[in-house]
Write a structure and sequence with these properties.
The complex is a heterotrimer. Helices cover 73% and strands 0% of the residues of chain A. Chain A is an all-alpha fold. Classes of the chains: A mainly alpha, B mainly alpha, C alpha/beta.
């Protein structure tokens, strides 16, 4: 009695067989080609970055009224900043693969003789760029609208924390976006899947940021939490690399 | 039908489970001493913690089974992964409810944030609660299985990481009972062990029941398809995998590439001038 | 005789519990054209997608251009061109930008993009977003995309749909068999036996995923093909 349903054909993703025949430069030029296309589409449609940035600023205003505070510091400031950034990020995550899914972009890519991991890297890098653009607007807006202590001395620590957090958000966001985009309720499943996965990033990010945003007794981000963020990023990066192929297939 | 009966060993497993559960209950009520601080309510610990342990292991097991599915593309692994996660989710709900009752009884609130196991459990539960909606939202059954497996692996890796992160972030205002499992007095420790075994057996039995039911239904559908018509209507949308049983090999196509009963036997294909 | 370009045997592809393709088998020598007829839902598009390496075969043997699928699919990509129902173009980008993107993925030169844009006579419209183009123009850009990398095997899903006779004339040489120097192997899905039977060397008739007709084109009459749709 035969066992494997597909007649015993080898089933490992083909990428591993591909590697020996493929020279390294081709991988990065493929990544560049995909990123170029992504950014070109974004420039034409302006679907992601402006929306994310506007959402963040509006959310700060909503927080002002919801909390009935004109100025926040410490834990509260860190919390508001991270929650707002994450919810804005989800907007970007939702749009990440929509053009590909609706306009046949997956097929076009899958037909080409390229390493499929290149799409993962390109999409993560693109989302990372969107997040950086978002933060260029959101962090100044936050320091003007809500933040009590001045942001200047906090910047180095804040940037380091945001960088590590952004990588995690980008990796998880890309993985979940690829899962959610070709389902019936893609706009709902995206946030539902990402938020629990973001929790450790929120924990690490907020814990690192809170001591930076105090009026008195300012201290740097804790190395322990930065390391935690780093490990989380690494694990999910590897996981995404291993699993992405399975999501690209039809 | 040449498939092995799926329910082999089910009766033995069920009897063992009933025995273990009876033993555990007996120990909990008659053997384990009353805890000084919390009194009778503390006994819920013997239900809550084993449920949590078995549930978390079930989630991770679901991830491991999903890896097998992705490696072999055999849909039976996806079926097993689905059942493992599905059952773990139910046990997880029971964990949260018993945890809440315990919290109310011990600390006066229906929920506490200083118990990191409970908190990280809530996050994990919220994540896995999206498993079935995800499956339901994908119509193509093969893609449904594949995406569900990717999710199961991701979520399975998330469980320990989340546990560590939450634990690091919780400030301990209150001596946590969970941390004291290592220094439980002998009688409590023994009762706890038996409870864990009993609940694990219950989990295994329920999983096996569900697998058997699904497998049998799938066999019935396959038989019906064979008897009635090849083009019987497809099942409606469903979140559960169909549990395709292994089918007998079809009569091989003849040398001209046509299925037996095909209309035309033309000249050998591919010899056009 | 050189190795066949396509070798299928007992190909099965399932969709849930239903079989979208049930035991398809055939052998196509290089440089020949296989035309596939059948009603909607018969499995023509599924077959094309399996040959394009976009879908994995669930059972049976599939050998495309000497490589077995799905294990050696990577060796086949880049040598196969697919013209599907969807144009596989980004609507916000122009025809030229779309082609350049695909050219980079397939490592094809910029000159080839210009050559093809001229061949499909898109003219000035090549730099306007695809969403502003008519269906016929989109189809022409899609054809250009499909043959951009000069594939050995061309898979065409009703290629002449949405095209007026003038456009068909423009496009036909691009998706044709090619010169005697190098003949291209083609698989063409069609609903029009009147026009497409003439191009065929081998004919496959599908119904409900099952191959009900497989024969040399010379010995097939349009009446037999009409039977498939009954």
């Amino acid at each position: 009695m035969s066992t494997a349903v597909d007649g015993g054909a080898a089933t490992a993703p083909e990428r591993s067989e591909q590697s020996p025949a493929r020279p390294q430069p081709a991988f990065w030029s493929t990544v560049a080609a995909v990123m170029r296309k992504e950014l070109l589409v974004e420039l034409r449609t302006l679907e992601s970055v402006p929306g994310m940035s506007l959402f963040a600023v509006t959310t700060f205003v909503v927080f002002h009224f919801a909390l009935n505070r004109g100025s926040v510091e410490g834990d509260l400031a860190a919390g508001i900043l991270w929650v707002t950034l994450l919810f804005a990020a989800i907007l970007g995550v939702n749009r990440l693969f929509v053009a590909d899914a609706d306009q046949g972009g997956f097929d076009g890519f899958l037909l080409a003789p390229v390493d499929r991991a290149a799409m993962l890297v390109a999409k993560v890098a693109t989302l990372l760029l969107y997040l950086l653009a978002l933060e260029l607007v959101a962090v100044p807006a936050f320091s003007i609208l809500l933040l009590g202590p001045s942001v200047g001395p906090a910047l180095p620590g804040l940037l380091a924390t945001l960088a590590l957090g952004d990588v995690g958000v980008a990796v998880i966001g890309t993985l979940v976006a690829a899962m959610a985009v070709r389902t019936r309720s893609r706009d709902l499943l995206g946030p539902l899947l990402t938020l629990p996965l973001f929790v450790p990033i929120v924990i690490g990010g907020a814990r690192c940021t809170a001591p930076l945003l105090e009026f008195a007794h300012r201290s740097g981000p804790s190395g322990r939490w930065l390391a935690t963020l780093g490990v989380y990023d690494l694990v999910f990066g590897l996981l995404a690399y291993a699993l992405f192929d399975f999501l690209l297939e039809d | 039908m040449a498939s092995r009966p799926y329910g082999k060993g089910l009766r033995a497993l069920s009897i063992t489970t009933v025995a273990a559960m009876t033993a555990a209950l007996a120990l909990v009520f008659f053997y384990a001493p009353l805890e000084a601080e919390q009194g009778f309510l503390q006994k819920i610990f013997y239900v809550h913690v084993p449920l949590a342990i078995v549930s978390l292991c079930g989630f991770v097991l679901g991830g491991l089974l999903a890896i097998q599915h992705l490696r072999t593309r055999d849909s039976r692994w996806d079926m097993r992964s689905y059942v493992a996660i599905h059952m773990a989710l139910i046990f997880g709900l029971a964990t949260l409810i018993t945890g809440s009752i315990w919290a109310k009884g011990s600390w006066g609130h229906w929920w506490v944030w200083n118990e990191p196991t409970l908190v990280s459990f809530l996050i994990v539960f919220l994540l896995y609660a999206t498993y079935q909606p995800l499956r339901f939202a994908i119509e193509d059954p093969e893609r449904q299985s594949r995406y569900a497996s990717v999710f199961a692996v991701t979520a399975g890796a998330f469980v320990p990481l989340n546990f560590i992160a939450v634990r690091m972030s919780t400030s301990f205002l209150h001596p946590r009972t969970l941390s004291s499992t290592s220094n439980l007095p002998g009688s409590m420790g023994f009762t706890f062990l038996v409870s864990v075994v009993a609940i694990a057996l219950l989990y295994a039995t329920l999983c096996k029941y569900e697998l058997t039911v699904k497998h049998t239904r799938a066999q019935v559908r396959a038989l019906r398809r064979r008897l009635v018509a090849e083009d019987s209507p497809a099942r409606g949308r469903s979140a559960a995998p169909s549990g395709l049983p292994e089918e007998e090999p079809r009569p091989a196509p003849g040398p001209d590439g046509l299925a037996p009963g095909g209309q035309r036997f033309g000249s050998a294909p591919g010899t056009a001038a | 005789m050189s190795a066949p370009a396509l070798e299928l045997s007992g190909l099965i592809r399932r969709y849930g519990e239903r079989e979208a393709l049930s035991g398809v088998g055939l052998s196509l020598p290089p440089g020949r054209t296989l035309v596939v007829f059948g009603p909607n839902g018969a499995g023509k598009t599924t077959l094309l997608r399996v040959l394009a390496t976009l879908l994995r075969p669930h059972s049976g043997r599939v050998r495309v251009l000497g490589s077995d699928l799905p294990e050696d699919a990577w060796a086949v990509r880049g040598r196969v061109g697919l013209l599907a129902h969807e144009p596989l173009l980004y609507r916000e980008l122009s025809g030229a930008e779309n082609l350049r993107y695909h050219a980079r993925l397939h490592r094809v030169s910029e000159a080839r993009v210009t050559e093809l844009l001229d061949a499909v006579a898109l003219g000035g419209r090549a730099d306007e977003p695809v969403r502003t183009l008519s269906r016929g123009m989109v189809q022409r850009v899609a054809v250009a995309r499909a043959v951009l990398h000069d594939p050995e095997l061309l898979l065409l899903d009703e290629p002449y749909a949405n095209l007026d006779p003038a456009a068909i004339e423009l496009v036909a040489p691009l998706i044709g068999v090619g010169g005697d120097g190098r003949r291209r192997t083609r698989v063409l899905c069609s609903h029009d036996p009147g026009r497409d039977l003439a191009e065929a060397d081998l004919v496959l008739g599908l119904r409900g995923g099952r191959p009900e007709l497989l024969a040399d084109a010379a010995s097939v009459t349009p009446a037999e093909i009409a039977e498939l749709y009954r």
